[in-house]
Design a protein that fits this description.
Elements: E1 3-8, H1 11-22, H2 24-27, E2 30-36, H3 39-47, E3 53-56, H4 61-66, H5 68-80, E4 84-90, H6 94-101, E5 105-109, H7 116-125, E6 128-132, E7 143-146, H8 152-155, H9 165-169, E8 179-183, H10 202-208, E9 214-218, H11 239-244, E10 248-251, H12 254-262, E11 267-269, H13 276-285, E12 288-290, H14 298-306, H15 309-312, H16 314-322
Parallel strand pairs: 1-2, 1-4, 2-3, 4-5, 5-6, 6-7, 8-9, 8-10, 10-11, 11-12
Helix pairs in contact: 5-6
InterPro entries: DUF354 (IPR007152)
Protein name: DUF354 domain-containing protein
């Protein structure tokens, strides 16, 4: 059987391809998965029963770049032993570079315009580059656009049904729907200029806790002891069920903000960088509001929290009916 390789560096990368991978036998190929070491990504793959190899261990951006030649040599040896005809990745250049050296087809997906370094590398190596229609960069003759968002691949009702019992089992619905706050460490390759930055949500958490249940999703295990009561030990596969039953998402994770929008949950996006899909969802539909974490105030939340939930739920119905569902089921 022919093989197709998948180069994954983030949980959302896997989720984008998950339905393709689950249907690989029906589609006539065997998947060969290699990843950057990330706990949540590994957990999702193991939960779904997929085998994988680790191409790059945890480390800084500098160390990952320095290991690029090693990864290419290592993967070239593996590719030569397999019947791989193509490589798929989402803004990860390693598999594309390997495919280029072996004259194999490489297809890149992207929706993260600020990732200039990765784009520079995969743009040269890839045969095709696919992005959402709202992507604001022009990547040349290889660049193809589709009308939709990658988040539809795994959150469309045909493949995802929110389970109320999951947030309920953690006591998150005791005071109505919770507010989910995502705190990241700015360790992605495109965050290299902001490694030492952190989002300070102390004041906002204290104020919102008076009226709403708060759930924190924190990258890594380092956080103040006073936040322990907001940390719930849910599994990675339960995250989107909790997000779907949230009243509001706050954080600097662009993928999570778009996921919330697709589920009809409004967001306050606090990242210093933006993407085409964030701008599109914000300007066209108003379901995302971009505000730096240090400028947040209760006034920013008032209008959002007072708006009827039925108004926010109109957006996913429109997206599901009008835009391409990137799921290959």
């Amino acid at each position: 059987m022919i093989e197709i390789s998948f180069d994954l560096g983030h949980p959302a990368h896997y989720l984008t391809f998950r339905n393709v991978l689950k249907n690989s036998e029906n589609l006539g190929f065997k998947p060969f998965i290699f990843i950057q070491e990330k706990d949540v990504l590994q957990k999702l793959l193991m939960d779904d029963g997929f085998n994988y190899i680790i191409r790059t261990n945890k480390g800084t951006t500098a160390s990952r770049i320095s290991l690029l030649p090693r990864d290419i040599i290592y993967l070239r040896k593996l590719f030569k032993k397999r019947n791989i005809i193509a490589n798929f990745a989402k803004c990860i250049p390693v598999g594309s570079l390997v495919s280029k050296t072996l004259n194999k087809r490489s297809i890149q997906l992207d929706d993260t315009e600020p990732a200039s370094g990765q784009i520079f590398l995969f743009r040269w190596a890839a045969k095709e580059i696919w992005t959402p229609h709202c992507y604001y960069r022009n990547l040349g003759s290889k660049h193809k656009r589709f009308k939709g968002l990658y988040q539809l691949a795994y959150l469309d009702p045909s493949v995802f049904k929110p389970n109320r019992s999951i947030p309920n089992s953690y006591g998150l619905l005791d005071r109505g729907k919770p507010i989910l706050i995502r705190i990241i460490k700015y360790q992605a390759a495109h965050d290299w200029q902001h490694r030492k930055e952190t989002d300070n949500f102390d004041k906002i958490i204290k104020e919102l806790d008076k009226d709403y249940e708060i759930v924190l999703s924190i990258e890594g295990n380092e956080y103040p002891k006073k936040w322990e009561r907001y940390i719930k030990n849910y599994t990675p596969s339960e995250y989107h069920h909790i997000l779907a039953y949230s009243k509001l998402y706050i954080g600097s994770g662009a993928s999570s903000a778009a996921e919330a929008a697709v589920l009809g949950v409004p967001s306050i996006y606090t990242n210093y960088k933006t993407t085409g899909f964030i701008l599109w969802l914000e300007k066209k539909y108003g379901i995302i509001n971009s505000i730096r974490a240090d400028l947040l105030s209760l006034e920013n939340f008032k209008e959002i929290l007072e708006k009827k939930e039925s108004e926010w739920k109109k957006l996913p119905k429109f997206l599901f009916s009008f835009y391409i569902l990137f799921n290959y089921t």
